[in-house]
Amino acid sequence: MLDRTLLPPHIVISAQDLQNIPPATLNLLEYLLQENMELRSQVEDFTKQVAGQSKQIEELTSRLNLNSSNSSRPPSSDSPYKSKEAGKENKKPGAKKGHKGHRQAMLDPTDTKIVQPEICSCGNTAFNDLTDYYTHPPNNHAERMIRFGVLWRKCSQGTSSDKGNRWVERILSLRQTCRLRSLKTYPILVDAVRCYFKEQEPNLSWVTQY
User: Fold this and answer.
1) What is the pTM assigned to this prediction?
2) Range of 60's domain?
């Protein structure tokens, strides 16, 4: 006798209809219904596996797309072979044509110094056509002092944490101080680390030497 639990819920077969079906046909029908149930169960299992794998693929894909601009990764972890963004490779640098530039406005002079030209080789001492010339005070010395740090940041793309910022501030200051004192940075670092582990004060007398 056919197990009616194997039949789909929307199909109703009466007992009289089942009695009219040959036994061989009933056996074949029961076999097909059982196989269908097994296949449906396998399909459900495969669907769950595919859903889990799809979620895992999304997570892995999101990890591959992470870089220093959209995560906490340092810039040094970015791939140097990554292609440029579309539409930017042919873009010309600078402002668009017709853009009004912004220049630094000249400040009013706070001090005026009269500088007379030296005596000409021909003996002339009269320079009547002189005009006032104003200029901003140069700051080349300060720019040279931080040039090493600027170049370092341009090559390494900076740091990605406050701890890294503190390290860069101190090590670059130490490097520049040693440079001005004509000293080598590495031996001073070694001495500082050695004193730290020995719980001793490092020798800082060289800092105040001129």
Assistant:
1) 0.34
2) 4-64
